[in-house]
């Protein structure tokens, strides 16, 4: 008997089995209606649990919302950065596509010109444009080291835009066509003729406020009509022959009614110029 009581493990095991059977009996046995003290205790416990549960749930929900807001903020920040990068890449792509299109047109232009004359067309990029309304000088990225010289003609694929006015080591200034012509200085006049009709002769001497060039000294007998293309004649010793200047828009009487006054719309635009060609005429040996 004393040995049996001395085995503590066996005592605990028997006590556990007894409690288990008692609990099973209470659970599986017939349910006895709860007394009012039991109901009071149960209701009190439930009310107390609810009293603590709601604030705890609210606090837990608050911190959960903060965590979700943080996640949303980080996602939104990432999306904004991605969208900004996409916008920059799209803009850069559009610029490259536009530049590629212009260069392809320039390539086609030089190939056509090679079949027409033996001029050398050096393509240059416009790096700065003057904002001074009284001085439309433009700077290109070719200079003395590239063989550029003063008074070389400058054009785009559309037509004549100006001449090289000053040359530096690695860049040059270009005076645009509308600044070259000057009624007070006929030395700046441009000798021109009609494309396909070398018998016509005239001098572009000024740039009208309407945005057109004024061609004077056209003989009354010269056969010229609206729509004709005006090109350089090569007689002025500055601009080589054959460069397109513009299109005839109107013909009227000139000074003293002796000559004709012809209005010419420039072929090339003087704004938003990106690339130009400096025309080099090979020396005749």
TrEMBL record:
Pfam families: MreC (PF04085). The keyword Nucleotidyltransferase does not apply. Keywords: Cell shape, Coiled coil. Residues 86-113 form a coiled coil. Residues 126-280 form the Rod shape-determining protein MreC beta-barrel core domain. InterPro entries: Cell/Rod_1, Cell/Rod_MreC_2, MreC, MreC_beta-barrel_core. Involved in formation and maintenance of cell shape. PANTHER family: CELL SHAPE-DETERMINING PROTEIN MREC. Belongs to the MreC family. This is Cell shape-determining protein MreC. It comes from Paenibacillus hexagrammi.
């Amino acid at each position: 008997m004393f040995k049996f009581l001395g085995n503590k493990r066996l005592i605990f095991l028997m006590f556990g089995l007894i409690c288990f059977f008692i609990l099973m009996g209470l659970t599986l046995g017939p349910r006895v209606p709860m007394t009012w003290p039991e109901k009071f205790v149960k209701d009190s416990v439930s009310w107390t649990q609810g009293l603590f549960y709601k604030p705890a749930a609210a606090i837990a929900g608050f911190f959960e919302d903060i965590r979700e807001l943080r996640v949303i903020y980080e996602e939104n920040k990432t999306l904004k950065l991605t969208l900004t990068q996409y916008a920059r890449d799209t803009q850069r792509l559009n610029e490259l596509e536009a530049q590629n299109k212009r260069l392809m047109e320039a390539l086609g232009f030089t190939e056509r010109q090679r079949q027409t004359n033996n001029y050398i067309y050096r393509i240059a990029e416009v790096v700065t444009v003057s904002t001074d309304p009284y001085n439309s000088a433009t700077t290109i990225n070719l200079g003395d080291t590239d063989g550029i010289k003063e008074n070389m003609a400058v054009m785009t694929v559309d037509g004549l835009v100006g001449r090289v006015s000053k040359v530096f080591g690695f860049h040059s200034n270009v005076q645009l066509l509308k600044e070259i012509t000057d009624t007070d200085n006929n030395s700046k006049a441009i000798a021109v003729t009609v494309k396909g009709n070398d018998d016509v002769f005239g001098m572009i001497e000024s740039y009208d406020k309407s945005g057109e060039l004024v061609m004077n000294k056209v003989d009354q007998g010269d056969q010229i009509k609206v729509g004709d293309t005006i090109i350089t004649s090569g007689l002025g010793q500055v601009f080589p022959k054959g460069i397109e200047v513009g299109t005839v828009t109107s013909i009227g009487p000139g000074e003293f009614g002796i000559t004709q006054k012809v209005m010419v719309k420039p072929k090339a635009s003087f704004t938003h110029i990106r690339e130009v060609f400096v025309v080099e005429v090979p020396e005749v040996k």
